[in-house]
Specification:
disordered N terminus; two-stranded parallel ribbon; alpha+beta; 8 helices; elongated; five-stranded antiparallel beta sheet; about 45% helix; about 250 residues; about 20% strand
Length: about 250
Amino acid sequence: KLIAAVPQTLMHAVSGGVLSGISGGDFGRGFIGGILNNISASLAQGMSSVGNFGAVEQHLAYAGAAAVSAKLQGGNFWQSAGQALTVGLLNHGVSRLETIKKNIHNTFEAVDHYFNGNGEEVELGWNIKRKLLGSEQSKYLVHRLKNGRAVVLSYKTQADLTQDFDTFFVGRTPIEYFTTCTKSRCVTEFIAFRGDGFKDPLDIGQSIGDWLKIDINVEIPRGKPYDFAPWSYKIKYKNPGYSPGVYRYE
């Protein structure tokens, strides 16, 4: 089992280093962070099979590893530990509700679900949704809609989330929008992430040697692609001069 786990752990380490480098960070820190995230997830999973360890102990172990990983990557140790523990305990509280989708909050979790999940659809965390709302494309669109400068009131565009390490795995994701206006008010509904998902990160499936352009023959195991759950939200604003009607693109 230990030998079988080596390629997967190495995959997490390399993907963490490469993704960190792409997003402007340090490869070495990302590499170590990937190993620690993989080990902590395995540790928590292993503890769950031992009767002497409860859910709290599992989450404490994961929070500790997450904090060390964050520190190595230049983050805040205690803040990361607190966030990991809080998220872990909240997830545990709803884990028995089958209608609750798995939540993904960062690139490490996305890669982990790719390899260890069953291809089931996931809900993207609020931190990722906030990044979407704060993206240049989203803010530009909302600004033009509210100021009466939108060329079309219903269409499909994209938001680029590759500038942040946590949201790097989302990439350029679609945003659809539809608008209904009366003489005085407009409501624009947005649907984000629909039709998008985590398919084949960094061309996973090629050998690590091909990926890093070095002569080794270790093969990267393939994972299971999965979809992101669509997210709907809306804005209401004073009609800046649009003709009343329902606007939906074909």
